[in-house]
Amino acid sequence: MPEEELCVTGMADLDNLLGGGIPVGSTVLVVGSSGSGKTTLCMQYLVNGAQQGERGVFFTITEPLFKLTKNMEGFSFYDKKLIESGMVNLIDLRIISERLGLDTEKYSVEDAAALLDVLKDIADELNVKRLAIDSITALCYRLQSKEMIRDFIFKLGSSLAAMNCTTFLTSEVPPRKFQYSQHGIEEFISDGIIFLGDIERKGDLIRTFQLIKMRGMAHSRTKSAMIISSNNGIELAPLLKS
Amino acid sequence: MVNTLIDGLKERISKAITINQSVGIMLPSKNYSDLTQALLEYICSRTEDAWVYVTITKPYDNLIKQFGDLSGLENIKFIDCISRAAGISNTNPNCVFIESPTMLENLGLEIINVFKNVDDDTNKYLILDSLSTLVIYNDLEIVTEFFYHLANRTRARNIHSVSLMIEEEGVDSQLNKLIYLNDKILKVRDSFI
C-alpha cells in the first residue's frame, strides 16, 4: 500500500503528534473560543508552507486585513516578504462578497454557489496548496440551512482536495464548552479536528491543544499545553495532569 | 564570617554539581542570600559553561542590581517567573519572562529552548531558585509532577541541575520530600563549614 502524502505543518510539536503531518487534501477544523490561538495557528501553517515553496491563501471574514497583519507582525515567523511575493495571500471574504453583489448578511443557494466558485477559482489560479478560512462559523451564519452548510463545506473540501490543497477551517465555540462547532455539522464533514481550549490554574488560563481526529492517521489524542510566543509562535508541551 | 561561609558554600556546590546530575540544596531562610551569592559568584567564575538561572524568588532586575557582574555575561541566561505576575513589564535579551509562576509547562519549555542554543560539547547547568517558592504559587502535587518531568528532560539532555529549597519552620514535610528527587542533597546548616 503506498504511503499517504503528508502536508508538513512546519510546527514540529504538531507534526510529531500527527506522525509526520496532515494527509494532503484534508479539511481540518480548528476549533476554539476567542483568544485560543486559531488565527495564529492558521497563519503559522501558511507561512511555514510558503517557506517550503507551497503557496497559501488566508480568507478572513472576522477581522479586517490591516488588523490581521498588525497582529501577526509581532511574531518572528511572520515574513512580510512572503505576503508581498504572493506566496501567502490574504483576502477579505467580505470584499469578495460585495464585489459579487451578494447580500452580506444572508446567502441564497445561488449566492453560496457563486462564492464557492470564486474560492475554487482563486485556489486553482494561484495553484494553492494550503488554504485557511477564518472563520467557517461566520461564513455558515450566512448560509440559511443545515443542508446549505453541509453542501457548501462538502463541495469546498472536495474541490480543494482534488487540487491537493490542505485546508484549515476555524470554528468558533463558546469558552469551556467541549463542542466542535456552532451548527453541529462542520465536524462531520471535516477530515480532522484540532481542539484549542484552556484550563484554569490558580486563576490563570493555560492554553491547551488536542488532536481529536485525523482521518487516515494513527495520531496522539493527548491534551498538550499550548504556548504562543513571539519568538517561536505555537509550541506544545506535555500538560501537567495534577 | 560571611566571606568564609560563602567560600565554603562555593566549594561544596562546586564538588556536588560536577559529580552529580541533580543536586538539591536545603537551606534555612537566613542563609538564602549567602547561598545565592555563592552560587552566582560560582557561575561568574565558570564562563566556559552554559547556565540557566530560573528565578521565582526575586525579579531579574533585582538580581542584576544585586550582582552587577552578571549582566555582561553571555554564558548565563535567566528565566524570570515572577516579574510579569507582579506587573513589572521590563524586557531584556538576557532574560525570558514567564507570564506567571503557575505556567509550569511554559517554564519547562523555555528551559529546554534556551539550552537548545547551546552546543553539545558545553557543560550545561540549570539553577531552580526555588522549589519552595514554586509551591507558594502552585499546589504541591503539580510542582512534584513538574519536577519529575523536568528531571527526566534535563537528564535526557545531559543538563545538570541545582534546586534550592528554603526550609521554614512548620513547613509541610511533603514539601521537603520534593527535594529528595535529586541525586544529591546538600543541607546548609550552621555547622556547614
Q: Which blocks of ≥5 consecutive residues of chain A have pLDDT under 50?
A: none
Indicate the proportion of strand residues of chain B: 15-25%
Instruction: State the fourth-level CATH superfamily of chain B.
Output: P-loop containing nucleotide triphosphate hydrolases
Number of helices of chain B: 7
Number of domains of chain A: 1
The coarse silhouette of chain B is: globular
CATH topology-level name of chain B: Rossmann fold
Structural class of chain A: alpha/beta
- Gross morphology of chain A is globular
Q: Determine the strand fraction of chain A and express it as a percent band.
A: 25-35%
Compressed to H and E, one letter per element, the order of chain A equals EHEEHEHHEHHEHHEHEEEE
Gap between N and C termini of chain A, in Å? 42 Å
User: What is the CATH-assigned architecture of chain B?
Assistant: 3-Layer(aba) Sandwich
What is the spatial order of strands in the main beta sheet of chain B?
4-3-2-5-6-1-7
Query: What's the level 1 CATH class of chain A?
Result: Alpha Beta
Uncertain runs of chain B: none
Structural account:
With 242 residues, chain A is α/β, with parallel strands linked by helices. In chain A, the strands form two sheets. In chain A, strands 5-4-6-7-3-8-9-10-11 form a nine-stranded mixed beta sheet. Chain A is 35% helix and 27% strand. Chain A has nine helices and eleven strands. Chain B has 193 residues and is an alpha/beta fold. Chain B has one domain: Rossmann fold (3-Layer(aba) Sandwich), CATH 3.40.50.300. A seven-stranded parallel beta sheet of chain B has the order 4-3-2-5-6-1-7, with helices on both faces. In chain B, strand 2, helix 3 and strand 3 form a beta-alpha-beta unit. Chain B is globular, with a radius of gyration of 15 Å. The relative contact order of chain B is 0.22. At the A-B interface, strand 11 of A face helix 4 and helix 6 of B.
